[in-house]
Amino acid sequence: MKEYLLNRGENDPIIEIYFYPVHKKTVLTQHKLTGREKVQQVRYKQGVSFMAWVESLQRAIDYTEEHLLDSLTIDDIARQANVSVFHFQRIFAVLTDTTVGEYIRRRRLTLAAEELSRTSEKIIDLAFKYGYDTPEAFTKAFRRQHGVSPSEVRKGLGKLQSYNRLTIQVSLKGVEPVKYSIVEKEAFEVIGIRREYSVLNNENLIEIPKLWEEVNRNGISSRLSSLNNDSLKGVLGVCVDNSDTESRKINYWIGTAYKGERPGDLLSMEIPASKWAVFEVHGPMPEAMQKTWEKIFTEWFPSSGYKHAGTPELEVYPDDDAYQDDYYSEIWIPVI
Q1: pLDDT digits (tens, 9 = 90+) for 142-193
Q2: Which residues pair with 168 in a beta bridge?
Q3: Are 234 and 226 in contact (CB under 8 A)?
Q4: Domain spans of the chain, in order of start
Q5: 212-261 per-position pLDDT tens digit
Q6: Which CATH number is 1-175 given?
Q7: How many helices (H) and strands (E) does the chain have?
C-alpha cells in the first residue's frame, strides 16, 4: 500500500481533515511520528480516494507557496486541486476561515518581514518583490498586518505578526457523524431573483450576505415563502457555478420551488433531476450553516466516496425564526 507523507514544520498551521470509519469498505492505518504524520493510503470501492482528495488540496497549497513571488491567479491555484474556481474558494474559506487572496497577502508580508529583518535589501526593492506597485502601498499593507512600518522594523522596533504556510493533517477521530440522507428527486422549477457575482477578489463572498439582508428587509423572502407549492419546502439559496467560463462569475438565486405559471416579475430556472445528499442543519443562522458546510468538506466528502455532480446546490431555509437555537434547515448537494 502506498505511503503518503504530510511534511510540515512543528509550527506550521494545520488544516485538519477528520476521518471516522463508518463504511465497511474503507480501510485506514495511521502512525504518529515526531513533527509529522504518516498516513497510509485509503482505498474506496467507488469515487475518488480519500488520499487523492487530500493530495489535491495540499497540491494547491504547495503550488501557492512555490509561486508566492509570481503573478498568482486563482485559476492556476484551483486547477491544481482539479475543481472550479468557485468551489476551491469556498472549500478554502470553510477550512481556513480566510480567503485565498488574504492567505497570499499574509504569507507575502510574513516573508517580506523576515527578509527585512535579516538582510539589508532596500525597502523599495522588497515592495516590488512582494507584489506592490509602490513603497507607499507596501508600507500601508505591512503596517496593517504587523502594526509597525518597514522602516521601524529596520530599526529593531516593534513585533512582527507571522503567518506560516498551511499544511493538511489527517486525524482519526470518533467525531459525531454528519446526519444526511440520499434522495432522488425529479427535475423541478425554481422561481425567484438572480444576481451575478464575480469569483475574483471574493466579490461573491462579500455580496451574497448583503443580498440576503436585502430580501429579508424588502419582503421578497416572505413572498417567495408564500409562493412555495412544491414538496421541497422553504426559501432556497441556489448557486450556479460558471466560474470556469471566461466570465469567472457565478449566478446566485434566492427563490423557491414552484409548480405553475411563473409570476411575471420573477425569473425561473430548472433544477435537473439528481441524486442529492441532503444534510441536516440544526441551530441558528449563520453559524449552524457554516459549521455544517465545514463538516461536509472536512469529514463527509473525504470519507463518503461520493463526488459533487457539478450541478446547482441548494441551501433550504424553512419559514421559521432562523435565529432560534432549534431552527432546522438543510443543505442539498447533487452527487454522483
Answers
A1: 999 999 999 999 888 888 888 888 887 766 554 566 789 999 999 999 999 9
A2: 15
A3: no
A4: 1-175, 180-334
A5: 999 999 999 999 999 999 999 999 999 988 766 676 788 999 999 999 99
A6: 1.10.10.60
A7: 11, 13
DSSP annotation of 298 reads I
Q: Which amino acid is at 268?
A: S
- The C-alpha cell 455580496 sits at 207
| d(C-alpha 160, C-alpha 181), whole Å | 48
Characterize the bridge pairing of strands 188-198 and 36-40: unpaired
Cell numbers for 312: 446547482
Fold of 180-334: Multidrug-efflux Transporter 1 Regulator Bmrr; Chain A (3.20.80)
Q: Greater confidence, 263 or 304?
A: 263
Burial of 172 (0-12, 13-18, 19+ CB in 10 A): middle
Amino acid in position 17: I
Residue 331 CA to residue 285 CA, distance in Å, equals 13
Q: End-to-end distance of the chain based on CA atoms, in angstroms? A: 26
**CA–CA distance, 309 with 304 (Å, rounded to integer):** 14
User: CB of 130 within 8 A of CB of 138?
Assistant: yes
Q: What is the pLDDT of residue 1?
A: 25
Q: From CA 300, how far away is CA 293, in angstroms rounded? A: 10
pTM of the full predicted structure? Answer: 0.68
Residue 313: its H or E element: strand 313-317
Residues found in the chain: 336
